[in-house]
Amino acid sequence: MKYEYITMDFETASSSYTSACSLGLCCVNDGKIVDKKYYLINPNCEFNLYNVSIHHITKEDVLDAPSFDIIYSEIYDLINDNIIVCHDSRFDINVLYSLIKKYNLKYPNIYIACSLMASNIYYKGIVNNFKLQTLSSYLGVVHDAHNAISDASICFYLIEDMKKRLNLQNIDLLYEYLGLGFGKLNDKIKSGCYLINKHKKCFNIISNRLEDKKIGFLGKPKWNSLNLYKQKVYENNGIVCKGLTLECNLIVMFLNPSSKDLLSLNRIKKYRVIEVINEKEFLGILNGK
């Protein structure tokens, strides 16, 4: 069925994109949620204690839940040929993409919108950060953080708040106004939501070298924005580390890294072998070299 848009949120059992343990979907028409779907999913893997502390879903909670491939036919029928909105669409779309690959499922044809990118533009200077918890407080909406259906609902409230304030009739006009382009996911392409006026070189998504890599960045990039590089890591099924940790197994060294970061890198090197490359080498990977 065709909707104006559908908001989507995944929660995962670990840092792996294929470890989805819950999914929330809100189907929207005429400024209203007309259908909601919530799924518990058994990822058939171990649960990371950190992830459990965030979403409070345990392995025991999903023992009797179906795996993703069992519920996918229903999900496919919902999302196919629709605009899918996620808060940080890079994460949620990569979860969907990785699960489709894992189970060899049929690709949907979807357009990708990111409420995080839209919020960064519209609410800039109004709120301190663009986390769903902060934005829900600003909107005065009750939010159960990291509950998949609640997170998906907040995406709906954000899109509708921006549409209402700007007197725009649909999400297409909203994204045009904000200067954002929809990404795409189908059997031929996977691309993220992007800034139309600031969109840099679009790299081919062909690099197996980044798949499941945990990547840290040091310093300031010269040729593209850090956000674009992070997006390309997600699109190539890599993982961006929050700071330098022992989990990192690839470091991209840009210009002028801080002395603190260099000290952290040297500490990590004492415990494990870690690959360090520069921006030119990273661009080569993104271009399939």
Question: Which descriptors would you attach to this protein?
Answer:
2 domains, single chain, 7-stranded mixed beta sheet, alpha/beta, Nucleotidyltransferase, domain 5, 13 strands, Rossmann fold
Please, could you describe this protein's structure?
The structure is a single chain. With 289 residues, this protein is α/β, with parallel strands linked by helices. The chain folds into 2 domains: 5-195, Ribonuclease H-like superfamily/Ribonuclease H (Nucleotidyltransferase, domain 5), CATH 3.30.420; 208-286, BRCT domain (Rossmann fold), CATH 3.40.50.10190. It has helices at residues 49-55, 68-79, 89-103, 115-122, 132-139, 148-166, 171-178, 226-235, 259-271, 279-286; strands at 5-12, 20-29, 32-40, 83-86, 110-114, 180-181, 183-185, 190-191, 194-195, 214-218, 239-240, 250-253, 275-278. The strands form 3 sheets. The protein has a 7-stranded mixed beta sheet with strand order 3-2-1-4-5-7-8. Strands 11-10-12-13 form a 4-stranded parallel beta sheet. It has a two-stranded antiparallel ribbon with strand order 6-9. Helix 5 (132-139) crosses helix 6 (148-166).
